[in-house]
Structure formats: structure tokens, C-alpha cells
Amino acid sequence: MSLSYQHIYHAGNPADIHKHLWLMAVLRYMTRKDKPLFWADTHAGRGLYDLSSKEAAKTAEAAAGIQKLLAAKIDHVLWQDYVAQIKKYNPRGGLGSYPGSAILAAMLLRRDDRLSCFELHPQEFTHLQNSLKKYRHSHAEKQDGLRGLGAYMPPPQKRGGALIDPSYEIKTDYEAVPQALARNLKKFPQGVFMVWYPLLPAGRHEILKEQCAALEAEVLIDEWIYADPAAPDHKGMYGSGMVIINPPYTVPETMGALKEIILPLLR
Ligand code: SAM
Question: Would the CB of 152 count as within 6 Å of ligand 1?
Fold first, then answer.
């Protein structure tokens, strides 16, 4: 099956904010300890998104997400850290470039950490390779992310985990993801695995949640619901979900506090 999803149409939307803040919170916590770690981004996308491109302008999803939030004054240390990372890619001010999950991870990880990013779409993969070039502790692989992840488990560093962020173009992903988690947790029970999923009226995410909740690990589910699916003018996604396996100590509290501040601003 050929892939048609391109994240450039959605970059910087409310779901990206939710997912990328979780990623920042987890990686900031894990890099406090002076021991190298391994991180994987199984569905990395292109790394860096040009919000002035015609694709991003067509949907203008960033207007309801990062652009809206940057205009609000949010007083939280993790939010300010996230904004500081975005500013590194916009040194002259404004918001032309938005760093996605792979670039955020590359920025937060240290020289001795290792980052493996997987992307199957040929065009996205070329962009990804270019955007990761300057991060010597990172590399990109053009292969299936769930299969690729398995090959690195358990990592020799014995610390780390992965962000699993499929586009769910292939509906079997809702079941393939928990199956992959079960396999990888057997090999690396202490791994921190994060899964993003969309909240859509079809409700396919319920099966993913049920199967994740049954995994033999600590499982946290966090949903940001920012639209009313029953509203007459509503179409498509109404919220963003994250499953976090083995959430690091204090990170759920940090994200809970941020949710209270940010979610009302996205509604
Ligand atoms: N994680 C990115 C971010 O937050 O910046 C966004 C990723 S986007 C939601 C999903 C990406 O997965 C798309 O670029 C798509 O081409 C890619 N993809 C789809 N199936 C894949 C697979 N089996 N293995 C690796 N990548 C895949």
C-alpha cells in the first residue's frame, strides 16, 4: 500500500502540542541522569515543518495550535522550554519552522545518547535525513518503524524507549501497536514507550486503549479533548490521546499541571 499521509498538513496543531509536550517532559526527565540512553521515533515524519509552505497554509491547523498558544502568555517552565526549542529554528522571530518529534528529540538528547528515527514515505524520509544531518547522535532509517524498533530492543544502554506516532492510515495499526508494545516490553520491561492516537468519532482508538491497558506494565492514558464531536459543524478529530508505558516519576504531575493551563486555551 502506498502512503499518502503527510504531516506537513497538520504540523503544529493541538494534537502536536499535546504529543510534543509529553515527549519534552519525558526526555527532559530521562536526561537528568548522567547515563546514556537510547530513543526511537518509529514514525518520525520529516523532522522539521515549514509552516509557510502551501501545504501547511492549506489547512492552517497551526493557527488553532502553536500559533494561538504562542500568542498567549503561558507561565510554566516546560512550556517555556518548548518555546525555547522552537525559537532555535526561528532565530529571526516569527514562526516559519516548527520542529517535529524527531528534531525535538535530537535537540534534547545528549552527545552520548542515541536516536533512531524510522520513516517509510520516500519524500518524508529525504526531508528527515536532511533535517537530522547536523545531529551526530541521530540517524534515520527508511523502514517500518515497529519492525525497526524491535531490532533495537533491548538497547545496550539499558535505558530509554520510543515514541510511536503512526498516521493510522492503515486501520490495523490500532491493533499492531499494542502487539508491538507487548513484544518490546518482554525484551525491555523498563522501557518508556509513548503512543499517540487520534480521537475520532469512529472510536477505533478504544481497541488500542483496551489492549494497552492490559499490558504487563504501568500504563497511563492522557486525553486532551478540545472539540465537541456532537457539534453540528464539527468534522474529524476531536481530541488527542497518549498512552505512556512506564511514565517517569513526576512527569504525569508536570503534564497534569500543563493540561489545566493549556487545554482551555485550545477549546
Ligand atoms: N512523529 C511526527 C511528529 O510528531 O513530528 C509525525 C509523524 S506522522 C503522524 C506519521 C508518519 O509515519 C508519516 O510521516 C508516515 O509517512 C509515516 N509512516 C507511516 N507508516 C509507517 C511505518 N510503517 N513505518 C514508519 N513510518 C511510517
Answer: no
> Would you tell me how many other CB atoms lie within 10 Å of the CB of residue 130?
13
Instruction: Judge if the beta carbon of residue 99 lies within 6 A of ligand 1.
Output: no
165 is catalytic: yes
Is 0.85 topped by the overall pTM?
yes
7-266 — its CATH code?
Answer: 3.40.50.150
Domain boundaries, the chain: 7-266
CA 123 to ligand 1 centroid distance, Å: 12
CB of 159 closer than 8 Å to CB of 35: yes
Q: What is the pLDDT of residues 151-193, one digit of tens each?
A: 999 999 999 999 999 999 998 999 999 999 999 999 999 999 9
Chain centroid to CA 3: 19
In tens, the pLDDT along 218-261 reads 999 999 999 999 998 888 999 999 999 999 999 999 999 999 99
